[in-house]
Design goal:
The chain is α/β, with parallel strands linked by helices. It has one domain. The protein contains 8 helices and 9 strands. Strands 3, 4, 5, 6, 7, 8 and 9 form a 7-stranded mixed sheet that branches. Helix 5 links the parallel strand 7 and strand 8. The radius of gyration is 20 Å and the shape is globular. The two termini are 37 Å apart.
């Protein structure tokens, strides 16, 4: 066969069929171990004695059409842009263990976490530590201190110098432990499909979960020992 070589690219129909299949595969942790639900991830962290880290990530989407009833729900309070958000959970090394379905960005991080069942899962399983940022403040008491947000500021006005020093030291220590989840999210944002999604918003959940699953498979392959034969 002669002629110039043409790169094959899947059509919209093929992508539409493969996307949900990839989203359902979950995240690969090691050979033979795959996590698909938040309950499975928390159980894995508890049984292995590992620390988890959660954070929300937003992805820009097209603005809903005028007249749509839930149009305002997509406006992010963080950057005032139309977006959807997902909750990402990694281990202490930044390996992605879970990526939730996407919700309109107007939903608060703590509300999204409750809807996903983060409050009930830690209480019903083995002890586990899940680090969180200030957006999840209040989940500590609801999860028996298993979700650990930054230390709450007790003095809002005219705090003593000694308290400011202790609070800042605790805040920085927790932030340095949480930075790994930012690395995990950054790899998701590198995919053009998630940098700014111009397709249908109802496909966004499958897209972000499919990308998370593909990246988890890649990170597992990178950590697998190479044969020296």
């Amino acid at each position: 066969m002669t002629g110039t070589r043409r790169d094959w690219r899947p059509g919209p129909r093929a992508i539409g069929e493969v996307r949900p299949l990839l989203a359902e595969r979950g995240c690969t942790i090691s050979q033979g171990l795959r996590l698909r639900t938040l309950a499975e991830v928390i159980g894995h962290l508890g049984s292995s004695g590992q620390t988890g880290i959660i954070d929300g990530t937003e992805n820009r989407v097209r603005r809903p059409a005028p007249g749509r009833k839930d149009r305002d729900k997509f406006i992010s309070g963080k950057n005032e842009q139309n977006a959807v958000k997902a909750m990402v959970l990694t281990d202490a090394e930044g390996r992605r263990l879970f990526c939730s379905p996407a919700e309109p960005a107007g939903c608060a991080d703590i509300t999204h976490a409750r809807q996903l069942g983060l409050v009930k899962h830690p209480l019903g399983g083995p002890a586990v530590e899940i680090l969180a940022d200030a957006g999840y403040q209040g989940l500590g008491a609801q999860t028996g201190a298993r979700v650990v947000p930054p230390p709450h500021r007790k003095f809002k006005k005219n705090p003593p110098d000694w308290y400011e020093e202790i609070h800042e030291r605790q805040r920085k220590a927790q932030s340095s432990r949480r930075i790994r989840v930012e690395h995990g999210i950054a790899h998701l944002k590198n995919w053009p499909a998630l940098a700014r999604h111009l397709g249908r918003r109802e496909h966004m959940s499958d897209t972000v979960q499919a990308v998370a699953g593909l990246l988890s498979h890649q990170q597992t392959a990178d950590l697998s020992p190479k044969s020296t034969s």
